[in-house]
Amino acid sequence: MSSGKINVSVENIFPLIKKFLYSDHEIFLRELVSNATDATLKLKHLTSIGEAKVEYGHPTIEVKIDKENKKLHIIDQGIGMTAEEVEKYINQVAFSGAEEFLDKYKDSAKDTGIIGHFGLGFYSAFMVADKVEIITKSYKDEPAAYWTCDGSPEFTMEPADKKDRGTEIVLHIAEDSVEFLEESRIRELLQKYNKFMPIPIKFGTKQQALPKPDDAPEDYKTEYETVDNIINNPTPAWTKQPSELTAEDYKSFYHELYPMQFEEPLFNIHLNVDHPFNLTGILYFPKLAKDMQIQRDKIQLYQNQVFVTDNVEGIVPEFLTMLKGVIDSPDIPLNVSRSYLQADGNVKKISNYITRKVADKLKSLFTENREDFEAKWNDIKIVLEYGMLSEPKFYEKAGAFTLYPTVDDQYFTLDELKEKVKDTQTDKDGKLVLLYAGNKDAQHSFIDAAKAKGYEVLLLDSPLVPHLIQKLEADNEKLVFTRVDADHIDNLIKKEDTAISKLSDEEKEKLKTAIEGVVPAATYTVQLEALDSSAAPFMITQPEFMRRMKEMSQMGGGGMYGMGNFPDMYNLVVNTNSDLATNILSIEDAGHRDQMVKQALDLAKLSQNLLKGEELTDFVRRSFEMMQ
Question: Alpha-carbon torsion 594, 599, 603, 606, what sign?
């Protein structure tokens, strides 16, 4: 037997490991199972090149609880270590950077980036154990070794009688960590971190039904056998080539990732690149609501099939964090810290690659089956619109497949739309005016008036529309988007400079004074317009600029400061060529005239869904009274 001190200049590193990493102490199991996996994969490589003259076989990793003796075992059938290798890799290398570690992390006690950074993965065991044993036998023909340490720099090592190749780590669980002796807790951690590890992980046994014999009697009772409980899927879908997978395989894997998700994904994007970095993965487009209150952090990040985090901010472009799926890259360390992501050039390349790959996939889906793409548009548009606003590289490509639906359920790209409406919707100043509605029902009368003129009306109802059309207008000269209820249709796409009113200037002034005496000036600006006699007598419109700035301010990231809380302002457009305008002028009784104006205003408000509560009650009562 030999004993000695671990090669570290700090007198007692173990309490510091606990202190610095306590907030994330569950990752000890991830680290130890990852080490066991590495040892097994190294053996596989050595046997494949003929360097290890042993049979690789079908190795597993076993995690075993001994609750009575307060022990947790992690056992592998991998490459193993000689006594000399234990001395090198456990006693020396692991702490070669200890002083640098202490200096770097003394002010960031919660930063878990130190695990693995200085070879400390194995020593994460001391976050939950007050004593750790290693029993290991190398694939080489050398004696097995036994190493133990009680959480101080002191260790002992002696020969062991282990006959089988591989390593067994025994953790004597500390009193403050007895949760890790519970089967449910260990199962939870294995499924969280090691669900897709490339080596089968055994955790206990289970009963498996035997096949029913062909000659079984009618009263045959199912027989069971005890088999190893393999808790992981060593060959998940993302580790395979797309050519090996069917549409059903992708859906099946989606439900393996999200067992409680009952809706099918709309489509998937398979990522696979090996230069200038390594990256594989599968991203799924789920059905998304129209609002922005979308649950994020559903993409899981893995490193060589080891779960790292479901916070992929910085790796995946922000607009794609609304998707689901898996990304696996050996170029991202197990412990992703924000400072690492900000500094690492590879991460930015990965983000750019994912952006490009998603854009290319969307383009191919659009090209290959446009009808299906259009059918899915409303479920994916939030992601695409967000991407156009937040990622310049995505915006450059998105014009080829971003759709603009009409109120009649037709879909156009922007270029198609411009070509279709250029002859009818270009105003007298040469501007192409694209009309849109946010709500088909609420803006029905305005849509109807526009369609009567032969105009196309788009249905743009996502919360990002104000920001998006602002960007499109800035990037497309002489193109404007105008909501269909922003003014009378003749004013939205102005074809002529002058219009003739049948009222004199004096009559118009008298009419305006009469209306302003009834209409609240704080909310409405009265505008007299000489429109077609068949047009509505009173119309309420909301100026495009004011409404858009207000919506952008409410959404954040745009608009004028404070406009989100600015009160709603409307225009009351009065058609001076209508019979109602003439009738109001002819009424001598001021009370009767005011009642007519009030009734007309309420009818205009009703058409815009602005008449509610007490005002609606008063309108209904007044209407009945006027009919008597």
Answer: positive
Separation of alpha carbons 15 and 485, rounded Å: 68
Q: Return d(Cα 481, Cα 487) in angstroms, integer.
A: 13
Tell me yes or no: is domain 237-375 CATH 3.40.640.10: no
CATH class of 499-628: mainly alpha
Q: Are 90 and 136 in contact (CB under 8 A)?
A: no
Q: What is the crossing angle of helices 465-475 and 544-555, to 10°? A: 120
Class of 2-204 in CATH: alpha beta
Per mean pLDDT, which range of 33-37, 270-274, 291-295, 444-448 is the poorest? 291-295
- The sign of the CA dihedral 373, 374, 377, 379 is negative
Domain boundaries, the chain: 2-204, 237-375, 403-497, 499-628
- The CATH class of the 403-497 domain is alpha beta
Report yes or no: 355 and 317 within 8 Å, Cβ to Cβ: yes
DSSP 51: S
| pLDDT surpassing 80 at residue 475 | yes
The amino acid at 22: Y
Average pLDDT over residues 449-468: 91
Q: Considering the entire predicted model, what is its pTM? A: 0.74
Distance CA 529, CA 516 (A): 15
Which residue, chain included where needed, has tokens 């042993």? Answer: 54
Task: Report the b/e string of 104-126 with b at 16+ CB within 10 A.
Answer: ebeeeeebbbbbbbbbbbbbbbb
User: How many Å is the Cα radius of gyration of the chain?
Assistant: 36
Question: Using one digit for the tens of pLDDT, what is the confidence trace for 32-73?
Answer: 998 899 899 999 989 998 888 899 999 999 999 999 999 999
Which tens digit of pLDDT belongs to each residue from 257-280?
A: 988 888 889 999 999 888 777 889
- Residue 61 phi/psi, 5° resolution? -115, 130
Strands 524-529, 479-483: parallel, antiparallel or unpaired by DSSP?
A: unpaired
Q: Residue 98: how many CB atoms within 10 A of its CB?
A: 19
